[in-house]
Amino acid sequence: MPPYAGPPTPPRSGEIADSLRLMIYLGLAVALIVLDHRGGWLHQARQQFSLVVQPLWAVAGWPGQAMRRVQDDAGTLGQLTEENQRLRQELLLSQARMARLRTVAADNERLRGLLDAAQTSSVDVQLAPILDIDLDPTRQRIVVRAGSADGVRVGQSVIDAGGLLGQVIETKPQQSSVLLITDPAHAVPVAVVRNGVRLVAYGRGEGGRLRLGNIPTSSDVKVGDELITSGLGGRFPAGFLVGTITDLSPDESRAYLQGEVRPAAQLDRGRDVLLLRAAPPMAPAPSAPPQ
Question: Where is the Rod shape-determining protein MreC beta-barrel core domain (predicted)?
Fold first, then answer.
């Protein structure tokens, strides 16, 4: 038999109030649901409330929108950077190709000039690539890839598309050394194209120029006159362009004129030269006049 628990405890007043409050809330909720279902006035209230709080929602969404915009901008910037790099590479490649095409065009033009010079000279010529060049003021020479094994011999004249370049002074089986007309030790008999006045042009070394010495003041020689090889001495065939007189002035004695000549040959550029195979045997060169 269970022990006696005593009389039942009456409910507290607070619990009764809570129960009544809950019942009231439930009744209100049911009433609101029924009224909203029939009249829809709660829906209108929600719309009005949404209009009121919409600016707050927009403000609350700004950080997220800003973050997404930053992410989108970062992605776009990365794509633009990659595309810019790719376009720069394509541009550099295109520029390199254009430079190569210009070089090929220049080479074709240069070879065409050499071909024209060979056809105009009416002598047998041999094309020789330039291997090395020495334009020191006291030593003006080039080395070409053609030697005794190719039939090259000492004394052969050398020209390019512009005119007389020099002469062969040393041969080896596969290459030869050419003394340029601007070398201080070089002299070439020339004639004025305009009237045939004979002169001797000497190499200066410095500045890539030739000089004329001991010109009588009575000689009909002018600045701008073109000079060609005269053929005297048998060293160089006659008729090859040597250069143009750029300056005439009295020497120290005032009894003669001295002149400066700009060579017609491209001494400081070009890749190939022409060796004249019909060159005559080597003859003594005119001695340089006293300085």
Answer: 132-276
